[in-house]
Amino acid sequence: MFPYLDTVARRYPPVIVWALVGVNVLAFLYQISLPQRLLDRFLFEFALVPSRFFGQLSLVAPSDWTPFLTNMFLHGGWLHLILNMWTLWIFGPAVEDRLGAGRFILFYLFCGVAAGVAHALANPDSVVPALGASGAIAGVIGCYARMFPAARLVMIVPILFIPLFFEVRAFVFALIWFLMQLIPGFMSLGDQASGGIAWWAHIGGFVAGWLITPLLRRPSATYRHYYRDEGIYGFLPDGRRRGGQSPWT
């Protein structure tokens, strides 16, 4: 199940989202240009290895805090990169529109760092490099769901070669998505050596995004109200279906 389209109207071009996609793609192209030996060293230095901060490696190979920032611009493969950038492309523009470009980049970086901290604390002895933008993007999903809980998301489910489309409210999608991270996250506690999905990075990023949203949202006085005919595809500007008076979002 993948988000295909959102229904929240926006007024400003998502410049920061475009820039983040570009930076992630360039960073990945640099990664795959490295020979394996240099790539392993590069990931050890700039991806997030929790044991270098909270485990035994901190005694022999300590690190500064740079990987908590740099790891969110690295990816483990083309599919990893494409799925993350697609999710950012769906949820990011509406969030950037309501926060403003400056606040959005600070919000994105904060969620990414919070995601890294959550992952490292949950897996303090792990020596597996964690990398990817999914923790920061989880924060964007949390922010989107908090600002536009009744917005409709168009989802796509591929059944063999036939795509199935359906609508779901943003809050419902976020709740299901969060539970899908929380359950395996608790089950993974104590399994320090395994790789795979950094569940606690997703959890930490989502919670950080949900909690900090009210502090960063653009004041309504600085953002012109929508007129009632400015929704898209028969939806109100906040992504809800038409049928009643919409509060400004």
TrEMBL record:
Any GO CC annotation of this UniProt entry: membrane
One Gene Ontology MF term: serine-type endopeptidase activity
Classification via Gene3D superfamilies: Rhomboid-like
A Pfam family hit: Rhomboid
Domain Peptidase S54 rhomboid: 64-218
InterPro entries tied to this protein: Peptidase_S54_rhomboid_dom (IPR022764), Rhomboid-like_sf (IPR035952), Rhomboid_protease_S54 (IPR050925)
Transmembrane intervals: 12-30, 73-92, 104-122, 128-146, 153-177, 197-216
Membrane topology: Multi-pass membrane protein
Entry keyword Membrane: yes
Protein's UniProt keywords contain Hydrolase: yes
Name the record gives this protein: Rhomboid family intramembrane serine protease
Species of origin: Methylocystis echinoides
